[in-house]
Design goal:
The chain is mainly beta. The protein has one domain: Roll (SH3 type barrels). The protein is 10% helix and 42% strand. It is built from one helix and seven strands. The protein has a seven-stranded mixed beta sheet. A hairpin with a 5-residue loop joins strand 2 and strand 3. The relative contact order is 0.31.
């Protein structure tokens, strides 16, 4: 498995250009969660925008393909990122 830094994982996710990717991260309760997501989804947007800037809190706003809703992905809890058929382990 390839290894990647957290900063490079963020760049990898942001450069996905709307392609579907998978991530594994640690939830707030300590359990692991796998999510299939993508960026650039504009469905269900109400036009008001967010009340904060996610990047200031080490977050990325993604669209969860299974839950069909927007979720915030915490970069500091990432374990794995899979895109273009390659899986990357995040170096802690």
């Amino acid at each position: 498995m390839n290894k990647i830094t957290r900063e490079n994982a963020e760049k990898l996710i942001k450069s996905s250009n709307g392609a579907i990717f998978s991530v594994q991260f640690v939830k707030a309760d300590g359990s692991l969660r796998d999510m299939t997501a993508r960026l650039g989804v504009s469905k269900h947007v109400n036009g008001k925008g967010m009340s904060f800037e996610p990047s200031e809190h080490d977050l990325i706003c993604v669209f969860d393909m299974q839950a069909k809703g927007y979720r915030m992905l915490r970069l500091d809890t990432l374990r794995h990122v899979t895109t273009d058929g390659q899986t990357w382990a995040i170096i802690q």
